[in-house]
Design brief:
The chain has two domains: 99 residues, Immunoglobulins (Immunoglobulin-like, Sandwich); 119 residues, Sandwich (Tumour Suppressor Smad4), CATH 2.60.200. The two termini are 34 Å apart. Helix content is 3%, strand content 52%. The protein has one helix and 18 strands. The strands form four sheets. Strands 2, 3, 5, 6 and 9 form a five-stranded mixed β-sheet that branches. By secondary structure, it is mainly beta.
Length: 227
């Protein structure tokens, strides 16, 4: 599905109400963060439509004008803040007001990771990884096994999530465990008995496992800190 990138910059809104043109719809709203207006952002609108005007004033109010009324998906991105997605349902007049949209600051997590063949993780070297929204990590075992795990992080609202990269294995939440306790409970063979998860919230003190796609390697991870 094509998207249309709309760059929003601080511009004063016209004092007079916008006269609705034939076939033109108007989507309105406001961006704030920590009680203050956000005046620079980018909008990705799907499906792609022709734009006639985009305005964002010093108070964070914006107006997106598009042709051909229908439902839209809008992704809002502003530097330093978690992205926001809104599904826009137009009213009978072909307009929508998204109201006040509060942006959340981006987070980072610091992880301790051990990677290696199943049953040998207690001998693996601990590696440090820092993750943030949109970042991916490729962690290779510090031995001759060639074991490699890959995973990525995304932020949705206030939650920073880790997910597997492409089809590389299964994520398995292990709960609030230290890395040492997680290692002590790791199976000598086979896989962890906990059910797989697509996304895991990166919370301080939590541990999780990542089975590699080759059924030979595994990784244990511990969230040391969330910033």
């Amino acid at each position: 599905m094509k998207t249309l990138l709309l760059s929003l910059i601080a511009m004063p809104l016209a004092a007079a109400p916008i006269e609705k043109e034939r076939g033109l719809i108007v989507i309105q709203g406001a961006l704030t963060a920590a009680g203050k207006p956000v005046t620079t952002a980018q909008f990705y609108v799907a499906p792609a439509q022709s734009q006639s005007a985009v305005e964002l004033d010093p108070s964070g109010r914006f107006e997106v004008k598009l042709l051909n009324p229908r439902s839209y998906s809008i992704d809002i991105q502003a530097t330093g803040y978690a992205p926001v997605r809104r599904t826009v349902e137009l009213d009978q007049k072909g307009a929508a007001d998204l109201g006040s949209i509060v942006l959340e600051p981006l987070k980072k997590a610091r992880l301790s990771v051990v990677v290696g063949p199943r049953g040998t993780l207690s001998d693996a070297q601990t590696q440090q990884v820092e993750m943030g929204h949109g970042s991916c990590a490729n962690v290779r075992a510090q031995d001759e096994s060639g074991c490699l795990v890959s995973f990525c992080a995304t932020q949705e609202g206030t939650e920073l999530l880790v997910n597997r990269y492409s089809q590389s294995g299964q994520l398995r939440p292990l709960g609030a465990l230290s890395l040492a306790d997680a290692l002590a409970k790791s199976p000598r063979g086979g896989t962890f008995v906990t059910g797989p998860a697509h996304n895991i919230v990166l919370e301080k003190g939590a541990a999780f496992a990542l089975d590699s796609s080759d059924a030979y390697c595994v990784a244990l991870m511990h969230v040391d800190e969330v910033l």
